[in-house]
Amino acid sequence: MSFDRTQKPVPTANLEFIPPVIEEIKLNNGLRVFYLYKDKLPLIRLNLMIDAGSKYDPGDKKGLAYLTSLVLDEGADGLNALELSDEFDLLGSNFNVSTDNDSINLSLQCLTENFERSFELFSKVLLNPSFNEDDFNREKKKLITQILQSKDEPEYLADQIFDKIIFGASNQYSFPVIGYEDSVNSINLNDIINHYNNFFSPSNSFLVIVGNTPREQLMLLLNKYLIGFTNSFTKQQLSFNSTSQRKKIFIYNKPGSVQTEIRVGQVTQKRNNKEYFQKLMFNAILGGQFTSRINLNLRERNGYTYGATSRFQYFKETGFFQVATSVAAENTGKALNEILFEISNIKTGITDQELEFAKSSITKKFPMNFETYRQIVSNVSGKILYDLPDDYFETYIDKINHVSKIEVEQAARTSINDAELVVVLVGDKNLIEDKINNLGFDITEVDINGEIIN
Amino acid sequence: MADCVTKSLELVERKKLNHLNLTCTKGKLENGLEYILYQDKSIPLVSVNIWYRVGSAYETKGKTGLAHLFEHMMFQGSENVPKEMHFRYIQEAGGTLNGSTSTDRTNYFEKLPANNFELALWLESDRMGFFLPSLTEEKLNNQKDVVKNERLERYDNQPYGLAWELLITKLYPANHPYSWATIGFLKDIEGYTFNDVKSFFQKYYAPNNASIVIAGDFENDKAVELLRKYFEPIKPFDLNHSIVFQKPELKENILIEHKDNVQLERIYLAWHSDLIYGFNDASLEVAADILSGSKNSRLYKRLVFDLQIAQDVTAFQYSGKFGGHFMIISTARPGVNLNQIKEIIFDEINNLIKDGVTSRELEKSKNGIKANFIYSIQNLDTVADYLNHYNYYLNEPNSFEFDLDRYNKVDKDTLKNAVQLYLTKPYVELRITPKEHNL
């Protein structure tokens, strides 16, 4: 068969993809449930998101929300920690409690044939956690060791120091979710119980559930096992002000590092902002993809790194822009210079071709966001968490297609202010200091928690 | 062309598990390229997944890491695809892509909207058949730098990051294909030449040394037509390579001590074990799960839960075509002596040999394995890779039920015998401890 191999094949007829329609159900106790019937496989996946994340940790008890999630599933309703874990294992069900800055999440994945028993166990953890002193002490000790271990992780250290510096100490997003050694030490079991009582309420949570349990049966189970979920809840006021930074490099000296972790960025808006799609296109062109400007420059042209990316990270109340990479110590200065060049160069304009590429890749990839049960649960959860419009999925592609070149260039200029850019370096100071002296930044040394060393 | 045969399982069991009977079509082009087609029309996507039967085990001493470096080179364009455009075309079409290298094989995969999967076939065939004309010294030097950075970032600069390399270089004898890490030694990476890359391609990247899976929303007839159009013009070549090595055996225990930028001491124990799909492979995997796979597993319960002298413990069976080893790894809490942890590990191994496991432990492990099979096939890329995996090792892509059945057949006796057979032999012990200056 002969054909012209120089010609890239063209797609056949346009694809019709209609995002799944999620039903919202309100239980008698006020809990909002978002449900999708999906019967590709005999499994159920669900996630209960509780607005109880580390942003609520009190000043001297950082790590409280995280430790609460560690202790939460150490026994419930008469089952001790090992018995509870065994019950889930025997069903082949994956139950997990996790914490981030905004939320504590209880998630479950199970075979449909084991759904009722798995959900019953899930409800026991949610409604009747044991909170034993022994379990608390064990998990606390484990967490303090985990904090010690995190000191070995260069990526983790760079991210944590970056958060501290861009947000400033008074912002509730500025500290690590796992807390500090001394702050965790000061947490006692009553703090955990109070955190649970203050936040674990139906009016402060929502449940997303995807799987092949018919609606009627689901309603029976939800009403049967969540009837006792009735705690009331009072909203707390928090501070999310961040202190703006001057153009500065912050170094954390980690002797013996052969690579330098680099983070460059600043505070930006929260997720639900009018320029979201413009910024999405801007970032896709700058550093969001393998073929974006930053990776092509640092990796494919200069060979400084295994990979370099940029992103907008969003939280419920704020967000940041960040370029991240890791380079051999001797290339620290050169790589940083290229990053700064790309950030400033993109403000002088983008090409039509770049914008078309970004739109094409992101809109055509859209169906893939609904492939796995986990993705669907996560996308629906994000939509609720960030208060996105009801028709968000239905209008997603149209909104991207309407973004203009001028709007993207505008977003590039407004979302990054060169005078406020912060650079965080984690590496061997002796190897990198002379590489970064001439970049026009003040250089400040910080400790492992991002506090300035005088 | 033959329909994939389902391996024997009782009828009742079959009915319950029909989600794991992935009916597919297997065939071969005239040039020897094997293909496997699996339809799933639940979402308009198609995954394309190629396995080349070459991995780091096929390298030679002094040129370690070449298979992995080569994987990088395959993304640098081919005769009709300029540098960077392989990535760009797939992403522009809304697809995802990557590749990976292991000891036994190298894979490349794309997932695309269903109306555009021909693009993946064009790209994969262009680099299978027309790679060398576009290869340049400049591209090679760039990717050598990238791979050096990959090694520094993911191994040298990671806490405990060199453990695997330290262990296998002692566990396997110097001529064994598993005695170096897939990433390769830094010195070797620096030394690859243009000719190394060229001859590697000419030795291994033949259509008759590969298999391609197409999975997702497409029609079989159309897929076969396209496979023939793009791949059949590529000439096969004589495959003239074999791996010769002796069955590795340790005469005595080996202790390695290594200082690293870490806070906590960690112990690694490694024994030679069975090959992938060998008689004892599944028993050892279940044993690993019973030792460390859950909160109530034997080692976790004793070391982390009850005594609280370890921060974590992991046991696993690692097996491939040319070798296998069983490993147990545990990190000590501050101030705890690794000897204490080691003693308990051996105590629990002896308990497995002396008293065996309980029915409940077996049931728990098997239920978990079964459920995880179902969970894992949510993603089309995973399904496609499984089909190639089974085809490579078992010559039958639709082997999910066969594979699950291996675990179901593990009983108290097979498990006990497997543990006794392998974990009472000499082992390599690695201890990674903090450097003095590290506080």
What does this structure look like?
The complex is a heterodimer of chains A (454) and B (439). Chain A has 454 residues and is an alpha+beta fold. Chain A has 16 helices and twelve strands. Chain A has helices at residues 64-72, 81-90, 115-127, 133-150, 154-167, 181-185, 189-199, 215-225, 276-288, 293-301, 332-345, 352-364, 373-385, 392-401, 405-415, 429-436, and strands at 23-26, 32-37, 43-50, 94-99, 104-111, 205-211, 248-253, 259-268, 305-314, 319-328, 422-427, 442-445. In chain A, helix 9 packs across helix 12 (352-364) and helix 9 (276-288) packs across helix 15. Chain A starts with 22 loop residues before the first strand and ends in a 9-residue tail after the last strand. With 439 residues, chain B is of the alpha+beta class. Chain B folds into two domains: 31-231, Cytochrome Bc1 Complex, Chain A, domain 1 (2-Layer Sandwich); 254-434, Cytochrome Bc1 Complex, Chain A, domain 1, CATH 3.30.830. Chain B is 42% helix and 18% strand. In chain B, the strands form two sheets. In chain B, strands 1-2-3-7-4-6-5 form a seven-stranded mixed β-sheet, with helices on both faces. Chain B has a five-stranded mixed β-sheet with strand order 8-12-9-11-10, sandwiched between helices. In chain B, a hairpin with a 4-residue loop joins strand 10 (310-319) and strand 11 (324-332). The longest helix of chain B has 20 residues, at 137-156. Chain B is globular, with a radius of gyration of 23 Å. Chains A and B meet through helix 2, strand 5, helix 4, helix 10 and strand 10 of A and helix 3, helix 4, helix 5, helix 11 and helix 13 of B.
SSE topology:
The complex is a heterodimer of chains A (454) and B (439).
Chain A (H helix, E strand, L loop, with lengths): L22 E4 L5 E6 L5 E8 L13 H9 L8 H10 L3 E6 L4 E8 L3 H13 L5 H18 L3 H14 L13 H5 L3 H11 L5 E7 L3 H11 L22 E6 L5 E10 L7 H13 L4 H9 L3 E10 L4 E10 L3 H14 L6 H13 L8 H13 L6 H10 L3 H11 L6 E6 L1 H8 L5 E4 L9
Parallel strand pairs in A: 2-6, 7-11, 7-12
Antiparallel strand pairs in A: 1-2, 3-5, 3-6, 4-5, 8-10, 8-11, 9-10
Chain B lengths: L1 E2 L7 H6 L8 E4 L5 E6 L5 E8 L13 H8 L11 H8 L3 E6 L4 E8 L4 H12 L7 H20 L6 H9 L14 H6 L2 H11 L5 E7 L3 H12 L22 E7 L5 E7 L8 H12 L5 H9 L3 E10 L4 E9 L5 H18 L3 H18 L3 H15 L5 H9 L3 H12 L4 E7 L5
Parallel strand pairs in B: 3-7, 8-12
Antiparallel strand pairs in B: 1-2, 2-3, 4-6, 4-7, 5-6, 9-11, 9-12, 10-11
